[in-house]
Amino acid sequence: MIISEKLERLREMKPLVHNITNVVVTNFTANGLLALGASPVMAYAKEEVEEMASISGAVVLNIGTLNKEVIESMILAGKAANQKGVPVLLDPVGAGATRFRTDMANKILEEVQIDVIRGNAAEIANLLGIDWQIKGVDAGDGKVDAAEIALQAAQKWNCAAVVTGKNDAASDGKDTYLIQNGHPMMTQVTGTGCLLTSVIGAYCAVDSNHLEAAVAALTSYGIAAELAAEKTGEVGPGSFQIQFLNELANLTSEEIAQKAIFTKQQ
Amino acid sequence: MIISEKLERLREMKPLVHNITNVVVTNFTANGLLALGASPVMAYAKEEVEEMASISGAVVLNIGTLNKEVIESMILAGKAANQKGVPVLLDPVGAGATRFRTDMANKILEEVQIDVIRGNAAEIANLLGIDWQIKGVDAGDGKVDAAEIALQAAQKWNCAAVVTGKNDAASDGKDTYLIQNGHPMMTQVTGTGCLLTSVIGAYCAVDSNHLEAAVAALTSYGIAAELAAEKTGEVGPGSFQIQFLNELANLTSEEIAQKAIFTKQQ
Amino acid sequence: MIISEKLERLREMKPLVHNITNVVVTNFTANGLLALGASPVMAYAKEEVEEMASISGAVVLNIGTLNKEVIESMILAGKAANQKGVPVLLDPVGAGATRFRTDMANKILEEVQIDVIRGNAAEIANLLGIDWQIKGVDAGDGKVDAAEIALQAAQKWNCAAVVTGKNDAASDGKDTYLIQNGHPMMTQVTGTGCLLTSVIGAYCAVDSNHLEAAVAALTSYGIAAELAAEKTGEVGPGSFQIQFLNELANLTSEEIAQKAIFTKQQ
Predict the structure, then answer these.
(1) Which residues hold substrate (chains A, B, C) (predicted)?
(2) Which of A35, B13, A238 is CA-nearest to residue C27?
(3) B196/B25 Cα distance (integer angstroms)
(4) pLDDT per residue as tens digits for the range A153-185
(5) Which of A265, A61, A92, A96 is nearest to A169 (CA)?
(6) Domain boundaries defined on chain A
(7) Under an 8 A CB cutoff, do A42 and B28 touch?
(8) C-beta atoms of A31 and B94 within 8 A
(9) 3-state DSSP call for residue C27?
(10) Are C180 and C135 in contact (CB under 8 A)?
C-alpha cells in the first residue's frame, strides 16, 4: 500500500465532503478539511441533504449533538449517497453514553449501508453489544483490544471500521491494520476524532479501497499531530490546535513516506 | 470617498450587529466583529428576532446551514429591520448548490427589502438566473465577470451588491467599484466570506451610504488579510486565521489610507 | 479558603460537565474545559438530556441562542440533575435584551433549583427586576454594584450568584466575595463569560461548597487571562484567545496561591 500518493490525489481532486455533524466541531472540521485540501460543506435540512449528498465525494454522519430531525436528515443523505455510490461514514459519538445515542446509531446502521465507521473503542464496542464503560463521550477502559473490535465491527456491518485511542486499528473484516502515528495532545483538543472521520471521508472520496483510504488518513493525520506536537506540545493545547491545522496544510508525501507506521496484523 | 475615517466611526459607535448565521462560522463571526470593534449578537428564535433586530445597527442573514425554521426567523427579523430602517444584509451561501438554497434565498429576497447582498460569483449569478456551476459552497468558474454580476444584482434587487472572489466588486446599480485588497489565504479559512458580510453590516450600521460602507469594509478587511498573510502566510492557515483576528483589531486608519486599492469602474 | 488545592482536585477527578449551551461558544467551551482538566459533553436532545445530566458532575444551562425546544431540554436536564444532587448552573445570556430571554430565564429559575447563576450585571439585574440597560448581550452601565446584585440574586434564588464585569462578585446570600483577577482582553473574545460559567460548573462538580467553588473558578480563570495577556495582549485578541487556552492547561496551584486576589466583603 503506497499511502503517500493518496494525499496528492486528494489535493488534486479537492473532493466535496458533505458533513452532517455536531455543533461543537463544525468550524474545526471545515478548517481541517480545507487545510488538508478537501472542500467541506455542511448541509442539514431534510429538504436539501439528498441533493447535496448526491453531488458529494463523501458523506460524513456524526451524531455528537444529535436530535430526531438531524437523524432523519442523516438517513435521507445516507440513502441518497448509497444510491449514487458515494461513500458514507458514521461517527457514533457517545454511543453507549445514553440509550438515545445507541438507538440512533443503530437506526442509521440499519437503514443506511455505512462504508466506514469510526469511533473510540467504547463507542464501537457498545454498538457491537460488548460491555464497555463510557464516560460522556470519552472512552473508558475495556478488555477487548482495538484491532479485535475493528474486525468485529467490519464483519458485522460489512464495512471498513476504524477504532481509535491509545492504539488505532482499521479493518475491512478480512485484513486489519494497526497504525501507530498520532500524539496524546490530540485528546486535549475537542473534535480531533470527529475531524479524523471527515478526513477519512475525504480520502474515501478519492480511493475506492476504503481500508487503504482509512490507513492513509490515520497515518497522515497522526503525522500532522506529531509534527504539531514537536513544535507546540510544550506550549499548550491552544497552540497545538492551530499548529495542527498548519501541519495538515503543509504535510508532504515525503513526510508521510518517512514517518508512517502501520503494520498488517497477522 | 474617504474610507479610512469610517473604521474610526465604527469603533466609536460599536454598533450591535444581529447575525442569524450558520453553525460553521458563528464563533469566527462573533470574534471577527469584536476584533474590528463592533458588538455581535446571535439570536435565532422567532419569539425574539423581531425585538433583537429592532434594536440592532444591522441585521445579517446567512443561509449557510439553513432550515425552514431559521428562514422564518430571518424573514421576521428582516421585516422588523425594514420597518425600523435598520439595514439588512443577505449572504446566500451555497445558492445554486441545491434547489432548497436557491428557493429560500429567493424567498428572502421577495419578502424582505435587502440592503446589501454579498456572495461569490456563483451564488449571485445563480440567483440572477445566470447559468453558473457551483461545487458545494465554492464558486466554480463562470463567464460573466464580478462587476457585471454585482451591477445586475444591485439593479434587480434595488440594493448594494458585493461579489467576491479573485476579484471583488461592489455596485449600487449605478456606480460600481472594483476592490483589489485581499489575499488567497482567505480561501483556506472557513467563514471568511461570511464574516465579511457581517463586517459590511457593521459598516452599514454607521454609514447610510451602503455602497461606500461596502467598499470600506472590503478594503479594510482585505488589508487585514494582507497584513496577516505577510506575517503568517508561510506558516499555514491555522496561524493565518488567528493573525487575521489580530490584524482586524490592530488595523489603523493610516494603514487603510495607505493600502486601500479600489477604482470606480468607468 | 484554600483555593489552590481545588484545581488539583478537579484535574484528578476530571468531572464530566454537561453543557446545554449556545452555538457561538460550543467549541471554545469544550476546549476550555478540556484545557483546564475537565471532561466536557454537549447533549441537547430531550430524549437524552435527563440521562446525560444524571451521570454528570455538573450541568450548565446557557440561553445564548435559545429556542423553545432547547429550553424544554434545559428544564428536563435541570430537574434530573436536581433529583440526583448534580449541581446546575444557569448563564442567562442576554436576559433583558429581549422579553423572550427574560421570560425563558425566569421559567428555568422557577422550574429548576439553580445552584449557581452567573451573568453580567445587566443580565442578573434585569432578572431581579432592577432597571438596567442592556445592549444586545453586553452589559451597559447601571447604578447598583456587582456585589449588591450578587447578594440579592443569591438570596432570591437560594443559590450562589456570580456577577462579572469590571468587578467580579460572588455571593451565597450570606457571604459575598470580591474577586479582582482577570483582564480587559477577555471582553474582546466571544464566550469568555460562557466558558467561565462552565468552569464554575467543573469546580462545583468537585466541591459541594458552591461559593468556594465559584471563587476558585473566578480567580484561576482570571489568573489564566492575566498570564495570557502578559504574553499576547499586545499582539491581539486572536493570539490572546489561543494563549488563554494554553494558560488554562498550564496553570499551577503555586501560581494560583501567588496571584489570587479576593476579599470577603465586610
Answers:
(1) 42, 191
(2) A238
(3) 11
(4) 999 999 999 999 988 999 999 999 999 999 999
(5) A265
(6) 4-264
(7) no
(8) no
(9) helix
(10) no
